[in-house]
RimJ/RimL family protein N-acetyltransferase
Amino acid sequence: MDPWPYRHLVLRTPRLELRPDDDEGLLELVDVVLDGIHPPDEMPFGVEWTDAPRDRLGTDVLRYHWSVRAEQRPGRWAVNFLVRRDGRVIGEQTLVGHDFPITGEVSTGSYLGLRHQGAGLGTEMRAAVLLFAFDHLGARTARSSAFVDNPASLAVSRKLGYRPDGTLVQVRRGARAEQTRLVLDRDDLVRPDWELGVTGVTQCRWLLTG
C-alpha cells in the first residue's frame, strides 16, 4: 500500500492545477501569504491566523499543514490543495470530509494571493473541488460560510448554486461578527462549461471514502 497516496492526486481546470500540499509547495505558499492575501484592515477568516507576527507566520503555516496531514483518517480528512497557475502556487483550496462515508457531506475553504484576485480564479478552484467531491467521491452536499462583509466569497457561492442556510455569530478581532452559512446539493451545482481533469484518485480512494 502506498504510504501517502495523496501525492498522486491532481485536479486540472482550464487555468489551474490543484495538488494536495507538499513541503516544496508549502514554501511557495508561505511567500504568497507573506505577500498578502487580504488588506490588513479586513479579516475574512474565522480563525485569525494571518494576524500572527510576520516573523512567525511562515512557521505557523508549515506547522498547521503538517498537523492536518498527520490527522488524516479513512473517511475523516481535510485535503489542502495547493493551487498553481503556470506552475506557481497562487493560493489554497481546502476540501474537508468528516465521517464522509456516513454523511456524504464536504465543506470548503480557500484563499488567493492579493495579486491573483478578481480574475474568477476563486470560482474556478472551488468548482474544481466540488466537481471532484460530487462526481468522483459521491458527495451529496457541500457546505461553506463567509462573513457578511466578505462579498467576494459570497459571490462565488452564489455563482455555483449555494443557497443560504442560516447564520452564525462569533467574535472576530474582539468584536461581534456574523457569518452567512451556505449549503449546496449535488443536483443544484451550477456546472462550468469545462470538464475537470482528475488523475490519481484510485490510489487515495480508500482514505477519502473510507
